[in-house]
Amino acid sequence: MSQISGIEYLINALNQSITYEDLSLVLQGLGVYVTTAQPPEGPNGQPGKYKLHPGNVVEIGSDDTFTRVTGVASITPFQEHLKFMDSYAGDGLGIPDMAQGSVDVAVAQSGIALALKMGPILAENEDKQLTIGGRWDQIGYDLVHDWIPAFEQIDSPDTVWTTTFGDPMPVNREAKIAELINLKTANLLLIDEARQVMKELGYKYSSGLTEKLIQEATDLATAAAGDVLGGELGSLPTTDPSLNGQGTLEFTT
């Protein structure tokens, strides 16, 4: 409430400016008419009203005029004014433009620039998480100790309800995966650690994947060793020249 009160004047100004813009569009679209002629005479001889609709003809004197006031020619000043106030309100609340749907690619791809841009809203978010987390912890405590035992007859007094929040900072998955590959290639990260981070990025691994990967690596290594050994054996003679062709060499692998 205190945050909203801080920009209450801007909210009222935005509302009033939109009202003026709508009124200008109505006046420009429907039109306000002006004439120097007298009002038309009604059936009873009293002054009547002009009937303005498609197909109708307005009859006036030859020396009179009847024109439409077109109103404003452009609503661009209104739009610029609204954009300025909206941007000013967002800056005052610490809301970056990318949180409102306007994303600069250069900023989004730069980790430091992104952290600086999102810094105010992340700092504000931490304060809000304290209140929100406390409320959810209380709800969880009531469920575990009151509602579930009363309605489901499940008593679990040792269960602890803890509210946790994920990282609100947007993640560049491409850069994160490249970082994992570099760390694993440099043997600074275990495969299970890399796989855990991949799960957090949204990848799903089937059951028994570790055994399958080990078997696949073993099969590839065996096939590669067989190719190398076969090439070496193929370059050696299969008979001993000193035996005059009467014997063969035995290779133990």
Can you give me a brief rundown of this structure?
Helices cover 55% and strands 3% of the residues. It is mostly helical and 253 residues long.
Summarize the structure in words:
The chain is mainly alpha-helical and 253 residues long. The chain folds into three domains: 2-39 and 47-93, no CATH class; 105-152, no CATH class; 173-228, no CATH class. The protein is built from eight helices and two strands; from the N terminus they run H-H-E-E-H-H-H-H-H-H. The protein has helices spanning 2-6, 8-29, 76-92, 105-108, 111-152, 173-185, 191-200, 209-234, and strands spanning 32-35, 66-69. A two-stranded antiparallel ribbon has the order 1-2. The longest helix is centred in the middle third of the chain and has 42 residues, at 111-152. The chain starts with a helix and ends in a 19-residue tail after the last helix. The mean pLDDT is 79.
SSE topology:
Elements: H1 2-6, H2 8-29, E1 32-35, E2 66-69, H3 76-92, H4 105-108, H5 111-152, H6 173-185, H7 191-200, H8 209-234
Antiparallel strand pairs: 1-2
Helix pairs in contact: 2-3, 6-7
